[in-house]
Amino acid sequence: MTDVTRAIATATSVAASLGLPASDAIVLHNSNKLALRLTPCDVFARVAPVGQEVARFEVELAQRLAEVGCPVCPLEPRADPRVYTRDGFAVTLWTYYEPVTPHTSPVDYAKALERLHAGMRKVDVSSPRFTDRITEAEEIVADPDRSPELAEADRVFLSGRLASLRRAIDDRGAVEQLLHGEPHPGNVLSTKNGPLFIDLETCCRGPVEFDLAHVPEAVCEHYPSVDEGLLDECRQLVIAMVAAWRWELGDQFPNGRRFGEELLRLLREGPPWPTLDTVVGRLDGLRQ
């Protein structure tokens, strides 16, 4: 059985053991975690190999944020709010929402992110700093065994850019708070209850501009009191970090190598720094 098949079997087994009928599973997303819609019980399940303690962190944080009124996807109310471990996998169960159209407008997206940030300032949790994400990217770039297809010149260039951006952002001394970490459109559900954020495992502490660097340009235009210089540096940092992740051995991102090449080209080309959704859209257009 493939890992995906085993993960699906585990998720349906966990749901069934809780009295939630799950005779079928639809794969919604497959990258570092498998996202499934279990039917007919209509539960959103996330599955990952055991050992990723962030699952526990994500469940606890989701509960805390929901309590203070943050626009986050709630856990499945018909199951205990915890991580279910079975057959080498960790499974978490969430409320499934049918997507609605039209998709979230930039204004509503910005308002929801502002509400999320405001709620996060009320929650006292231990979380990593955003610079830990930079360290993860630097370690991939520094180790040829982890990024064997990355050319040596690109390795030196990307390593230097990550280090210089870390220093530049740190030197600004901006106010930091709890952040989503990756509030890009793929982590925002358009629901009848308005936009809801998912995938809280990336939460970290940092300036709000780090979160804004992941969202479309039009969303930033409706978010109040943005430090444009810091946002520019954070956008460049996001491009550099994602470039590193796309070169990691075993990366499962669709068309990941081509994405990694394009991000390196953009870093060398210089400003203005595009948002990630713009880069993805550009690549999709080239493929078509």
TrEMBL record:
Residues 42-220 form the Aminoglycoside phosphotransferase domain. InterPro entries: Aminoglycoside_PTrfase, Kinase-like_dom_sf. Pfam families: APH (PF01636). Coiled coil: none annotated. It comes from the Bacteria. This is Aminoglycoside phosphotransferase family protein.
